[in-house]
Design brief:
Number of strands: 2
Helix content: 40-55%
Strand order of the largest sheet: 1-2
Mean pLDDT: 81
């Protein structure tokens, strides 16, 4: 059963008048056609009637958490479960879904399923694989080794590319500068001076 409407100013003044006449809460309720409980609450609270929190459970998410959820959902296509685990939130997945549903600029869409392979597609793939059986196919999408290179360039000059091993610290970087950069620039300066 939902909460009843708050008393109007006219109803409040009638209750005060009837109470001064000595009527009971039940009789006052019948006269103004309101429940006895509303009359009792008004008389108990007095001037504070209607100022109290209307009730309901407190929100399980703060404004900061709701903004974080909306920001994560706006930045990329993701699920409520992924947002919960990524942000380490202390609320249910359903709560996150409700926050996203109540955000007007976000629209929920299910990813479209790819069509299933038909028998002739499967046969074509198998025949292609049988033809390529003796050939080694290799592809690397992610991962693998990495190479660190170093080089320098200026207005009229550029250095040779140097391949570096491992992570560099200050001493190693100074070694690269002294062996490759300063020597190369000095040689190029001398060569240019000899030409002129």
């Amino acid at each position: 059963m939902g909460a009843s409407k708050k008393l109007t100013e006219a109803e409040k003044s009638k209750i005060d008048a009837y109470k001064e006449l000595g009527l009971s809460n039940v009789k006052i309720g019948k006269k103004i056609e309101r429940s006895e409980k509303v009359i009792r609450n008004y008389l108990r609270l007095g001037a504070n009637y209607g100022l109290k929190n209307p009730g309901g459970r407190p929100k399980s998410t703060s404004m900061h958490t709701r903004n974080l959820v909306i920001r994560k959902a706006s930045n990329k296509c993701t699920s409520a479960r992924a947002i919960k685990s990524e942000c380490d939130l202390n609320c249910s997945v359903r709560t996150i879904q409700r926050v996203l549903k109540n955000t007007p600029h976000l629209k929920y869409t299910k990813p479209k399923r790819k069509p299933a392979l038909k028998p002739h597609h499967i046969q074509a793939r198998l025949s292609w694989a049988k033809k390529k059986d003796d050939v080694t196919m290799m592809s690397r999408n992610f991962g693998g080794g990495s190479v660190m290179v170093w080089g320098a360039f200026g207005y009229k000059k550029k250095s040779k590319i140097v391949f570096l091993n491992g992570r560099q610290n200050a001493a190693m970087y100074q070694d690269v500068l002294s062996n490759h950069f300063i020597g190369q620039m000095r040689d190029k300066t001398l060569a240019q001076g000899a030409k002129t």
